[in-house]
Amino acid sequence: MPSISAAVDDVTQRIIERSRDTRKAYLARINALGDAPPNRGLMGCTNLAHAFAAAPERDKIVLHAERAPNLAIVTSYNDMLSAHQPYEHAPEKIREAARAVGATAQVAGGTPAMCDGVTQGQLGMELSLFSRDVIAMSTAIALSHNVFDAGVFLGICDKIVPGLLMGALSFGHLPAVFIPAGPMTTGIPNKDKARTRQLFAEGKATREDLLASESASYHGPGTCTFYGTANSNQMMMEIMGLHMPGSAFINPGTELRSSLTVAAAQRALAITARGKEYTPLGRMIDEKAIVNAIIGLLATGGSTNHTLHLVAIARTAGIIINWDDFDQLSHAIPLLTHVYPSGQADVNQFHAAGGMALVIRELLDAGLLHDDVQTIAGNTGLYQYTQEPWLDEGVLAWRDGLKKSVDDSIIGTVKTPFSADGGLRLMAGNLGRAVIKTSAVKLEHRIIEAPAIVFTSQDALRIAFDNGELERDFIAVVAYQGPRANGMPELHKMTPILGVLLDRGFKVGLVTDGRMSGASGKVPAAIHVSPECFLDGPLAKVKTGDMILLDAESGILNAQVDAAEWDARTITLPDLSRKTVNMGRELFSGFRHNVCSAELGAVSLFDD
């Protein structure tokens, strides 16, 4: 096994030192809970009767005997969300898997699962980020009955997996296994979908054309097949050892997918405190596991949303990371994949080319991942995740994954990467701190100096485009989109418009304290600007016409304004009342009031 690279080790040790006190406190808390595992036989009779009143008679006997583990199922099933529709019958499959090994399983609770694809550009998107914290809380409520020995967590999409993991980590004395449902089968090519979107933005395609294109892309059960936040989640769960090896991108409705669900449930039951392989989640997700997750994100060109979510997840486990850690690792980790939006392949093609097993092997062999970590698959380290599942005459088994990509236009090698760095950069200057995803941005577009045009909504930008006011070089400054202002919605509605202008030969860029989609694309976008405008962040000082330098190569984000004039400018808060009522937004005023900055994970759950 190669020794870990100096760059990776340096960041890891820095995180360990920074987190020493908070991690110690977290471990003490979960260790205390682990010393007093659920003991249903000692519960009050009324308590216990409530816990299994509706259970089948056989399960009641097993639960009362208190000799076998009881598995919590926390599910985010709904049949509106294509990625989560396959979970409809999973609980029964899991219950049967538990009974087959003499144990029990119960649905402990459900969590909300909203679809960012449905809410993009709609009022509901302003609840999207806060839904992560609601999911974390609902997961904690599900587990709070304290009658479970482990949990399996059914979730895939954007805020759902981070929320489930945060909730599970609050019960870190319990083992946890995450069960994916897999991506939908491949639809129309991503380039065709993107082209139709741009034609519609230009008025050259009808709404019927657009709907037909989108429906051919998003056409069945499973996750969307581009490499956005949902599929970045699955990569992350795999590389952190929370999936059964190789299970992230197996299509729903297949025999292999079903077999992996059964195996995941039985594995969760095997690693409880009642057995010989006790693997509590809170000890398993340590500083090295978090660093591995960041490295996986960088090596695959994953979603910028995880510069928020990973910070929040780590913080829940007493681990403190920040954007400097992402930036330093990005300079050391090569980009190994070209999956849309950084390439034309989708996740099904990525999986067929070698998938996660090959990416993990490449990184481990180069000393760019920590192998000495615990996983739910055992204590043999992360190399176990270089294997892939298959059915050997109908029986689930694992074999060595590919050692070389079958398509080097999709998966490269450490020696021949698509880029020498991970394509995620920290930007800083007199406008604050921000992140930018460069993996899909051509080199000639990574440095732009142009006058600002200030907007306070993506709808305002759309109107300006429709009126022909954007036929020039400019940097769109979209202000007051941070978590305190309006919940930090994704601003994906602007992507086709800015892409059209870029294709027309104009120099365009974006600076915002909001988010972009996990499918951030070819337009250079400095996002998550912190401090946000609502908290008097300097981005709120920008006026239309100010020259802005967005230099993704050097990490510079500056307003080119005389220093004395810049310091003298005052900030006037716009009327944001329309952003805080209707579509349920009034219920989240407490979240907006308590939420911390983007760089701290935009979390509303903790006292800061």
From TrEMBL:
Family annotation (PANTHER family): D-XYLONATE DEHYDRATASE (PTHR43661), PHOSPHOGLUCONATE DEHYDRATASE (PTHR43661:SF1)
UniProt similarity note: Belongs to the IlvD/Edd family.
GO-annotated biological processes: D-gluconate metabolic process; Entner-Doudoroff pathway through 6-phosphogluconate
Ranges of residues in domain Dihydroxy-acid/6-phosphogluconate dehydratase C-terminal: 410-602
Pathway(s) annotated for this protein in UniProt: Carbohydrate metabolism; Entner-Doudoroff pathway
Keywords assigned by UniProt, alphabetized: 4Fe-4S, Carbohydrate metabolism, Gluconate utilization, Iron, Iron-sulfur, Lyase, Metal-binding
Superkingdom of the source species: Bacteria
SUPFAM superfamilies with a match to the protein in the record: IlvD/EDD N-terminal domain-like, LeuD/IlvD-like
Role, per record: Catalyzes the dehydration of 6-phospho-D-gluconate to 2-dehydro-3-deoxy-6-phospho-D-gluconate.
Organism: Granulosicoccus antarcticus IMCC3135
CC terms in the record's Gene Ontology section: cytosol
Protein name: Phosphogluconate dehydratase
Chain coiled-coil ranges: none
Organism lineage string: Bacteria, Pseudomonadati, Pseudomonadota, Gammaproteobacteria, Chromatiales
Catalytic activity: 6-phospho-D-gluconate = 2-dehydro-3-deoxy-6-phospho-D-gluconate + H2O
Its EC number(s): 4.2.1.12
Cofactor note (record): Binds 1 [4Fe-4S] cluster.
GO molecular function: 4 iron, 4 sulfur cluster binding; metal ion binding; phosphogluconate dehydratase activity
Gene: edd
